[in-house]
C-alpha cells in the first residue's frame, strides 16, 4: 500500500506536495486544479519502469511539456556528481508497504543542460531505512553510476554504469538484483491505471494472441480481457454477470465472442431477458454499461493490481450503479486485495465515502496545492451536520 507520496515540479505542482494516502483515497476538486496530477505522476513513473525515458515522456510530448514552468533556475547548477543543469528536476517520492516490508523510493527526472537528452538525475530505493541502491548521473557522459548494497560486505557496495535514460527500477537480469528489489519492482509494474474511453470500448478488437491479457487504461480491449477472464475460470465471468444484472435488470447473459474471421476479432455480446431477443453488440451498449463492466472486471480478476487508479470514476454511472461500485471498492479494500485511488466530481459519490478518504485539490498562483478535510478543525461542526457531498457543493471543503 502507498502510504505517502511527495511530488515536485510536475505539471501544475510546483511547490512540494506531500500527502498521506488511505487504502481508499478520493481526490476531488474543480476542473484545472490538478486533482489528477498525483495519479499522472505515478503513471509516468510506471511507464519509465516499463520502458526508457524517451518512450515514457513521449506520451506527454516530452519532459519539457510536463515540467512546471517555474522549475527554471536563475543560473546553472552543478550536482555533487558533476551533472550540470538549468532546471530543477521532476521529483517523485513515495513510501509503501509490500509484504510487510517498508520501502521508500525517490526518483528525479531531468534533461541535459542543452535539453538534448533525458536523464535520471538521482534514484534510490530504501528498505526498512537502509539503501538497496543509490544511483546518480555522472557529469556530461550520459551515464549513471549505481551502487547496490552488497549482502556479503556491507561496507563495499556493488557498482555498475548504465545509460542515464533508464531507471535502475526498470532493469532486469542483473546478478546483483536482490529479491526485495524484484518484489518492489513487480509491485510497481502491477499498478493499474484506468481512464476509460467508452467511445471505443464497445468496438471489436483484434486478438493480441497473448497468454496474459491486461486491461488497457482506456478499456479498449475489454472484450479480449473478458475472454481471458473466462479462460481463467467461468466463475469469474459468472460473478461479473450477476452484478451486471443489478445494473441492468433485463440482462440475461453477456459474453465475449471471438469472430470466425481471418482477423479473429473479439467483441462483447449482450443478451436481454426476452424470448427471441437478438444479441446486442458492444457498440450498441451505453457508455455507463461499458464503464461499469470494465470496473467490475477489475474487482473479479484472479490477478488483481496492487493499486487501482481510476480517473473520473463516476463518469456515465447512475446513482444506483455508483452505490454498487462503492460497495465493490470497499470490499476489496477491506480484504486488502488492492488499494484504490480515484478522482471524482460527483457529490453523490462523495456522500458514500468516509470523509477520511478525501483529498481536496485547489490551485493558486504558485500552482496546485492539496489539503485533507479530516485534518481541519474548522470543519468539525460542519462534518457533524452535513455529508461530504453536501459540504463539497456548499463550498465548505475549499479554502
TrEMBL record:
SUPFAM superfamilies, sorted: P-loop containing nucleoside triphosphate hydrolases
Domain AAA+ ATPase: 21-365
GO molecular function: ATP binding; ATP hydrolysis activity
Ranges that cross the membrane: none
Protein origin, superkingdom: Bacteria
InterPro entries to which the protein is assigned, alphabetical: AAA+_ATPase, AAA_GajA/Old/RecF-like, ATPase_AAA_core, P-loop_NTPase, RecF-like
Short name of any one Pfam family annotated for the protein: AAA_21
Protein name: DUF2813 domain-containing protein
Organism for this UniProt entry: Ilyomonas limi
Lineage of origin: Bacteria, Pseudomonadati, Bacteroidota, Chitinophagia, Chitinophagales
Amino acid at each position: 500500500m502507498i502510504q505517502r507520496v511527495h511530488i515536485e515540479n510536475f505539471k501544475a505542482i510546483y511547490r512540494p506536495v506531500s500527502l498521506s494516502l488511505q487504502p481508499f483515497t478520493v481526490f476531488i476538486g474543480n476542473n484545472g486544479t490538478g486533482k489528477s496530477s498525483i495519479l499522472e505522476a505515478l503513471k509516468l513513473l510506471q511507464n519509465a519502469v516499463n520502458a526508457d525515458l524517451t518512450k515514457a515522456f513521449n506520451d506527454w510530448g516530452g519532459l519539457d511539456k510536463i515540467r512546471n514552468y517555474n522549475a527554471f533556475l536563475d543560473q546553472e547548477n552543478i550536482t555533487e556528481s558533476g551533472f550540470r543543469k538549468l532546471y530543477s528536476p521532476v521529483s517523485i517520492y513515495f513510501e509503501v508497504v509490500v509484504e510487510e516490508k517498508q520501502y521508500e523510493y525517490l526518483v528525479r527526472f531531468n534533461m541535459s543542460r542543452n535539453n538534448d537528452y533525458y536523464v535520471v538525475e538521482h534514484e534510490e530505493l530504501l528498505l526498512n531505512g537502509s539503501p538497496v541502491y543509490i544511483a546518480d548521473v555522472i557529469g556530461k557522459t550520459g551515464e549513471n553510476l549505481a551502487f547496490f548494497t552488497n549482502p556479503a560486505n556491507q561496507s563495499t557496495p556493488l557498482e555498475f554504469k548504465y545509460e542515464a535514460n533508464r531507471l535502475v527500477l526498470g532493469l532486469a537480469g542483473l546478478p546483483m538484483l536482490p529479491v526485495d528489489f524484484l518484489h518492489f519492482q513487480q509491485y510497481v509494474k502491477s499498478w493499474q491505471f484506468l481512464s476509460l474511453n467508452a467511445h471505443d470500448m464497445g468496438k471489436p478488437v483484434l486478438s493480441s494472441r497473448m497468454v496474459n491479457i491486461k486491461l488497457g487504461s482506456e478499456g479498449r480491449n475489454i472484450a479480449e480481457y473478458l475472454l481471458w477472464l473466462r479462460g481463467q475460470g467461468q466463475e469469474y465471468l459468472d460473478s461479473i454477470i450477476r452484478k451486471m444484472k443489478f445494473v441492468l435488470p433485463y440482462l440475461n447473459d453477456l459474453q465475449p465472442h471471438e469472430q470466425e474471421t481471418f482477423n479473429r476479432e473479439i467483441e462483447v455480446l449482450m443478451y436481454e431477458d426476452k424470448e427471441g431477443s437478438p444479441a446486442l453488440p458492444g457498440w450498441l451498449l451505453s457508455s455507463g454499461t461499458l464503464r461499469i463492466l470494465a470496473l467490475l472486471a477489475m474487482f473479479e480478476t484472479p490477478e488483481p493490481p496492487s493499486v487501482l487508479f481510476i480517473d473520473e470514476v463516476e463518469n456515465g454511472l447512475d446513482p444506483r450503479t455508483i452505490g454498487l461500485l462503492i460497495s465493490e471498492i470497499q470490499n476489496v479494500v477491506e480484504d486488502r486485495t488492492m488499494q484504490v485511488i480515484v478522482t471524482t466530481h460527483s457529490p453523490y459519490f462523495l456522500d458514500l465515502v468516509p470523509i477520511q478518504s478525501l483529498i481536496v485539490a485547489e490551485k493558486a498562483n504558485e500552482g496546485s496545492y492539496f489539503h485533507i478535510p479530516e485534518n481541519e478543525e474548522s470543519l468539525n461542526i460542519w462534518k457533524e451536520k452535513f455529508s461530504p457531498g453536501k459540504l463539497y457543493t456548499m463550498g465548505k471543503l475549499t479554502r
